[in-house]
Amino acid sequence: MELNESMLRQIIERTLQEMRGDGMVKHVDPSGVMSIRTSTVRCEPFAGAKGVGLKDATTLEEAPRMGAGVMELDHGQLEWTLTYDEYDYVIEGTLQIEIDGRVVTGNAGDIIYIPKNSHIIFKTPSWTRYAYFVYPANWADLV
C-alpha cells in the first residue's frame, strides 16, 4: 500500500485527537480552514457553577482573532458580563438570555447575538447545548 497525502493527513489527525485525549473530532486543513464535529466536544464543569459546562473548541494558536466552543446548561444558570461580542447557536434544547429583566429565548437552530459589555444571565428551563462564537478570541483574558 502506498502512503499518500490524504492517508498521512488522516493518521496525523487521529494521532492529534488521541494526544488531546478529549475525543474532539477536528480537521485542520493546511490552509487554516477548520471543521469541528460539535457532537464530539465534551464539556467540562465551569468555575464551580452548578449545571454549567463548557469547552473551547479552538485555541488561540489555531484562531487568534475569533474563538469558538460549546456550552451546556443543565437546569443551571450563569450570570456574566461580556467583555467581547458573542453569537450563540442553539444545538439542542432552549437557551434563555436574561438582560435587564427581559428574556430572549432561542431554541434548536436559533442564533442569539450578545453585544460586548452586556450583563446577562445564561439560563435554561431544562437543558441546552449551544455553540458560542466570540470576538476577540482571548475572551477569557478579558474577564
UniProtKB/TrEMBL annotation:
Transmembrane segments: none annotated. Gene3D superfamilies: Jelly Rolls. It comes from the Bacteria. Pfam families: EutQ (PF06249). CDD domains: cupin_EutQ. PANTHER family: ACETATE KINASE EUTQ, ETHANOLAMINE UTILIZATION PROTEIN EUTQ. This is Ethanolamine utilization protein EutQ.
